[in-house]
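A student in our group prepared the protein record below, which I am reviewing. This is what I was given:
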Amino acid sequence: MHEALPAAWPDLLASAELIGDLAVEERAALWTAARRGAAPRGSVLFAAGDEARHLYLIVSGRIKLLRGNSDGQEVIVRLIGSGEVLGGVAVLPRSLYPATAVALDDVDMAIWSRDALAPLLEQYPRLTTAILALVTRRMGEVQSQLQDVATERVARRVARALLRLAGQLGRKEDGGILIDLPLSRQTLAELTGTTLFTVSRLLSGWEAEGLVEVGRERVVIRAPHGLARIAEDLP
């Protein structure tokens, strides 16, 4: 059973994905229709092919989105963190979730059912446009990631994944950019459709070259331009 939202959430998430683009009236209506939900670590929010019934906004924790590639291997196509939305296809009639969502941590989130969203979408057409724009962008990212896994050599895939995560979640610190989430080598392997051994070998080599600094579930990019050269296969 979903609970009412904590009173502090609307202010806490005022600049969150989707929410930050809405007018004050639209935001208020959206928050009124939301309910609080939680997912324990390792649980599945929805599977690829399930009927899309809910839209989610992550407040804390992380979700990994999984899809099968051409080899039948499950690949992480995106990590969803605090302040990000998933399940936007729920606004489309008879739609199915295109990927499987699994909680990487204990997750706290705001949830909108399709039934709760329907009158809001009718009253506020701009809300529909904003959600569809988000869905289109997310689908493009998923297709790009799957294409990378299918066509690019491993070093380029791993370098691109690190740069993409730095762009999404990077935080500047002395001498580099910290990817501001716990990132294990196994997760990075799943994100790039390769093996733990290969990722470990690449990261060790790049660390020796001064491109990255790697700790336990911690990656700092020390030389973004050097990593970009690998990502673009430049000499």
In short: Residues 125-151 form the longest helix (27 residues). The chain has a mean pLDDT of 88. The domain at 152-231 is CATH 1.10.10.10 (Arc Repressor Mutant, subunit A).
